[in-house]
Amino acid sequence: xxxxxxxxxRRLFKGKxxxxxxxxxxxxxxxxxxxxxxxxxxxxxxxxxxxxxMLFMMTGTMPLLISITAGxxxxxxxxxxxxxxxxxxxxxxxxIYLASLIVSITVAVIYQFAFWLTVIxxxxxxxxxxxxxxxxxxxxxxxxxxxxxxxTAVIVFLCNSxxxxxxxxxSLTMHYIVSMLSAFLLxxxxxxxxxxxxxxxxxxxxxxxxxxxTEVPEHLPVxxxxxxxxxxxxxxxxxxxxxxxxxx
Amino acid sequence: MDHILQTENLSKSYGKFKAxxxxxxxxPKGAIYGMVGRNxxxxxxxxxxxxxxxxxxxxxxxxxxVKDNDKKLLEVRRKIGAVVExxxxxxxxxxxxxxxxxxxxxxxxxxxxxxxxxxxxxxxxGKKKAKNFSLGMRQRLGIAFSLVGDPEFxxxxxxxNGLDPQGIMEVREMILKLNREKGITILISSHxxxxxxxxxxxxGFIEQGHVxxxxxxxxxxxxxxxxxxxxxxxxxxxxxxLDGMGAEYRVYSPNExxxxxxxxxxxxxxxxxxxxxxxxxxxxHHESLENYFMGLVGGARNG
Lengths: 248, 303
Known about the structure:
The structure holds two protein chains of two kinds.
Chain A (H helix, E strand, L loop, with lengths): L1 H13 L2 H27 L18 H18 L3 H6 L4 H34 L8 H28 L2 H16 L10 H10 L1 H10 L8 H25 L4
Helix pairs in contact in A: 1-5, 2-3, 2-5, 3-5, 3-6, 3-7, 5-6, 5-10, 6-7, 6-9, 6-10, 8-9
Chain B lengths: L2 E12 L2 E7 L2 E3 L3 E6 L5 H8 L7 E6 L2 E2 L5 H5 L2 E4 L11 H12 L6 H7 L15 H13 L5 E5 L7 H18 L2 E5 L3 H5 L4 E6 L2 E7 H7 L2 E7 L2 H11 L3 E3 L4 E4 L5 H10 L4 E8 L2 H8 L7
Parallel strand pairs in B: 4-9, 4-10, 7-8, 8-9
Antiparallel strand pairs in B: 1-2, 1-3, 1-5, 5-6, 10-11, 12-14, 12-15, 13-14
């Protein structure tokens, strides 16, 4: 496993993609903060926006960015057939899958923290914070991180199971597709069921932290258990599928 | 005799298509085992199974004496190096970076990489990325990949595809060197049977997913027949004459044919002359690996 991680991390950090996406994340955070500061001082100096909400503004975009780096890293291993080099020398497929998951989780964590550090650093200088640091915001940041880990587990599952660009494209767009399907929630009559679906599906959990970051989510254990269940099910399922599949 | 690889009634089906059909081969330790077969005979499927990329539908195999259902199989796979079909490379990396990737996967040092690159003729590729390599260079880098872990068993699927004549010669010498000096057992499949015949110490002839014959190079030498190769103005006329003589022959082109039955030259030439068939050249040959294979699989051989 250690060898597989060394191989995976070297491939990750040797490529340009990881750094380009990282630069985009930091750049977007810096740009938005700067723009909001300039606009508020130019057009309405009575309002003084704070950077608290900015901490969660990329929660829904992050899965796409993680997918660009981590998803493509996995898919290219299959496309270039370099996955063979690991299987031929006796690495178990379970370990190969888990190593991919760990490398992908590393990507997710680095990207998420790079974004937060930029917002906290630049936000403190340009706009200041209303509530941060507060318990509610830290809990929501934790939930946001868990959501990213859940998306990452699904990305790894899709890319490892489909082994092609199709898997990458689905992982890239899944959050937006599921978000669009939220319209169907209107047909669910029971409010309780609606609320439960919102708490169980990561794409809808994003809204909970993006718009409710000033309060600890009401059913926090449900959200965390749902994410844990998705991570466990996709990982076990992904390993089983990978272990049974024939490779080129 | 010690065997590095043994398969027992190995079968692999893709839907209704049987890629391997009760295939049994025995690769002796220290051998260069040449797998001979047409396209789709099952050579690559066999290689994919023994390298762990595919699973057999039924049957079993053992590598270094370890059965495929034994957990120790993963351990012994460390002693295998393989190039399966197209070389598996990281296109955005240089040749050396590619090999460093493999040292990471194996958890070994990268001190031998320069020697490996030199051995495969890629020592001077510098910062050129693998995506800009020619087919031959990729092929060599694929072989280099397979050598990184100091394998005791090397599996090479069409290793000289895309190589120029000099490259073919260099790879041949490299394979012989690895076998003779390091004692590496090599399983090799190639369509270029002439080239295979210069390397192999043992052969397995595969047809429709089944091994129809296994033999050593010495045994092949004994059973392969002598033939007379003829270049004539019209092989149709030659065929008529040979049919009349009850001879065994094979026609390759409108001008070329081999005769396998011992035959007296003068009566043949006179008979051909009567039919206005003129002999341009005539030479005696030992039956080639290609001829032997075609005979085995029931190619165009007469008689």
